[in-house]
Amino acid sequence: MEEFDNGLDKKFKFDFSDPCVSAIEVPKLKEFLDKDPEAVLIFYGGEPLLQIDKIKSIMDQIDIPFRMQTNGIFLDKLPSKYLNRIGKILVSIDGDKERTNKNRGEGTYEKVMSNIKLIKENGYEGEIIARMTIAQDCPDLYEQVLNLINLGFTSVHWQLDVGFYKTDYKKEIMENFFEQYNKSISKLIEYWVSEIEKGNVLNIYPFLAIVQSILKDEPAKLRCGAGHSGYAISTSGKIVACPIMNNIEDFKAGDINTDPKDLKKFEIDECSECEYKDLCGRRCLYWRKAKLWPKEGDEMVCNSIKHYIREIQLIMPKIIEAIEKDTIKEDSFNHEKYFGPEIIP
User: Fold this and answer.
1) In terms of Cα–Cα distance, which of 25, 301, 62 is closest to 171?
2) Is the link from the previous residue into 46 a cis peptide, with omega within 30 of 0?
3) Which region, left, alpha or beta, applies to residue 340 given φ > 0 means left and ψ of -120 to 50 means alpha?
4) Helix intervals (H) in the chain
5) pTM (two decimals)
6) What DSSP letter does each residue of 287-322 carry, written as one string?
7) CA distance linking residue 272 with residue 266, whole number of Å
8) For the chain, how far is it from start to end, CA to CA, in angstroms?
9) Which pLDDT value is given to residue 235?
10) What CATH number does domain 2-333 carry, 3.20.20.70, 3.40.50.2000, 1.10.510.10, 2.60.40.10?
11) In what order do the strands lie in the sheet with 238-240?
12) How far is CA 265 from CA 151, 240, 250, in A?
């Protein structure tokens, strides 16, 4: 066991003893999942398609809904009889060829797009979600999402690569980033509602979920589900609040022998006075607990979230009008929760 001091106000206990390859016997995994009638299994990594034989073994012995988050490089390697049973696939792609290859390596964009074309030709009919990362040097969310839409993606989400490391906070850089990013969010919301007025509700997950919560007057828990409705099963059988916390003992919820209803629940104490908490859901458990950025940096993140929620609130009259005119249905905003798309980036 090791201790990690993040230099601020929290120490975590780390356990790096998990094996690189899953040591869980599939019957034991099945026994665990069978205890929850609503269980959904998400293949996640690292890169899950580096363990194709394990995926096949699991799918041969377990019959529940499957999802996958993948970099897309090896989508052509999993036989269609298995791939076509995975109802939703989140594929890492950051926009156009230049942006994706810069972030993920030369040739990545071409390979991913080729594989998506191939699996569709081989009968894949599930939902393919573009899984984007927006980093400090890439605030142009609007342009990159439109690139993906023009490529045929109708489902998109993104993660802000901010607030997860001490070293990535530089005040002037982040102030400029959020200024540009917030403008880009506003343009994207304007575009999204213009499509709604034409009867086309694109599955831009961050917008979709906020609108649904407003329409249903439904307060949100932590939007990703971490530590209350979704957990990560480590290669050793330990169960933690989410994959980013895999080696942190503080976030252990149980193990493969624990009854799912008895898994430890995790809560965020911050934000109780924030007027946006029921729509935001308090962003991220790890971010809140680790506190790796100074307060002014965290406030930049929170202010950006508030900006995006306010922008959604401003377009609600147009959405309600489109529903009343029967241009769209209210249930067009329904979506599966907790399988991976970032709602609060």
Assistant:
1) 301
2) yes
3) left
4) 26-34, 52-61, 80-83, 97-104, 108-121, 141-150, 171-196, 205-216, 277-280, 285-290, 295-324
5) 0.94
6) HHHH--S-HHHHHHHHHHHHHHHHHHHHHHHHHHHH
7) 15
8) 32
9) 94
10) 3.20.20.70
11) 232-233, 238-240, 252-255
12) 40, 10, 12
On the question of pLDDT at 29 being above 80, the answer is yes
Structure-token pair, residue 106: 């030369």
Structure tokens at 90: 């989140």
Tokens of 300: 């930049």
The helix-helix angle for 295-324 and 171-196 (nearest 10°) equals 10
Express as a percent the part of the chain with pLDDT over 70.
97
Amino acid making up residue 156: V
The amino acid that residue 318 corresponds to is K
The two three-digit tokens of residue 189, written as one number: 């919301």
Residue 233: what are its φ and ψ, rounded to 5°? -100, 115
pLDDT in tens, 74-115: 999 999 999 999 999 999 999 999 999 999 999 999 999 999
Q: What angle do CA 156, 160, 164 make, to 5 degrees?
A: 140
